[in-house]
Amino acid sequence: MNHSIIKVLLVDDSAVIRGLMTQAINLDAKVKVVGSAMHGQTALTWLQKNQADVVVLDVEMPVMDGITCLKQLRQLYPELPVIMASSLTRAGAEITLQALDLGAAGCIPKPVATNATAAIEQVARDLLPLIKALVTQHDTDKSDYSRFPATAAQRPAKTPMVMVVGASTGGPNALKAMLTALPEKFSIPILIAQHMPPLFTRTLAEHIERETKRPTSEARDGALIERGHIYIAPGDFHMVIDKHNDRMIIRLNQDEPEHFCRPSVNPLYASAAKWYGSSVLAVMLTGMGDDGIEGAESISERKGYIIAQDEQSSVVWGMPGAIAKAGLASQVLPLRNIAPELARLCSL
């Protein structure tokens, strides 16, 4: 189905937030708010008589909260993408990750700007590309990834010494699926750049550690990169690899965003290529946009090995699709096949 106008249902108990989001969404002529609701029950009632292409759902509401509503939406309308809007708090991060586990397609932070104009700009920047990416992905026939060129290497040029991972929309669930499927003996360090705001990345690290039983942390500046450990780039910081006294360490910085993202996958990939060369094992998971493409070029130039998630299993095939279409991927694989292949490449 081709949408001339993408129809959005807004669900939030704050009239102010609904107003700001409506103004932001309606800035794009191809997207329109067609309904609004104060809580989950009203939203479900609205959907009985009306249609939407995307639901933007607040987490905390009276009568019926976002999690309860999401569960019913997934049961009644399993193909309807739902984006969670959450406050930038530890509690908000915890509930949002729960919502992603339950099938929410993505999440955005609720506007925190001190004036209406800045708030509208924030919502337009965070929400509009996500809405359009999700609807486009849902409406497009999935590509046969085998038609995209792949590098000839069937195995890494050298034994992998580090794994670097990029992810965005749909990433938290994809990361958990991949990491929990790795064998216990998989011990090379894993560094992850997941597009998420501050506080959310710390909560993500806690969830991954709990589910994988591997030491996992939000990365700290100057920390030694240790085997068997997983490091998550903190929200609003780029994470790069550096060398100090013959040991590989993590450096964090707040350089300008790349591809509108901080953390960005690009600096992580590029620094891995610089210090590890052909011993880099890179994975690009689901996500919108093309962050990481330049870093992937650096890894490819130094004979590193790159796996991109396929379109069929991606929530949005932006970042992995860009790498596949550029011919930078050594392999393009369904999510379920990535962990076994990583184990094979590391001879486990």
Polypeptide structure, described:
- The protein contains eleven helices and 14 strands.
- The chain is an alpha/beta fold and 348 residues long.
- The strands form three sheets. It has a seven-stranded parallel β-sheet, sandwiched between helices. The protein has a five-stranded parallel β-sheet with strand order 2-1-3-4-5, sandwiched between helices.
- Helix 8 packs parallel to helix 9.
- The longest helix has 24 residues.
- The radius of gyration is 20 Å and the shape is elongated.
- The mean pLDDT is 91.
List keywords for this structure.
348 residues; alpha/beta; Rossmann fold; 2 domains; 7-stranded parallel sheet; 5-stranded parallel sheet; 11 helices; 14 strands; 20% strand
Secondary structure: elements and pairs:
Layout lengths: L5 E6 L3 H11 L5 E7 L2 H10 L4 E5 L7 H11 L5 E5 L3 H12 L4 E4 L6 H24 L22 E6 L3 H10 L9 E5 L5 H13 L3 E3 L11 E3 L5 E7 L2 E7 L11 H12 L3 E5 L8 H9 L3 E5 L9 H7 L5 E3 L1 H11 L3
Parallel strand pairs: 1-2, 1-3, 3-4, 4-5, 6-7, 6-12, 7-9, 8-9, 12-13, 13-14
Antiparallel strand pairs: 10-11
The arrangement of helices and strands along the chain is EHEHEHEHEHEHEHEEEEHEHEHEH
- Described by the principal axes of the CA atoms, the overall outline is elongated
The Cα radius of gyration reads 20 Å
Number of strands: 14
What is the residue-averaged pLDDT? 91
The order of strands across the largest sheet is 8-9-7-6-12-13-14
CATH architecture classification name of the largest domain = 3-Layer(aba) Sandwich
CATH superfamily of the largest domain: Methylesterase CheB, C-terminal domain
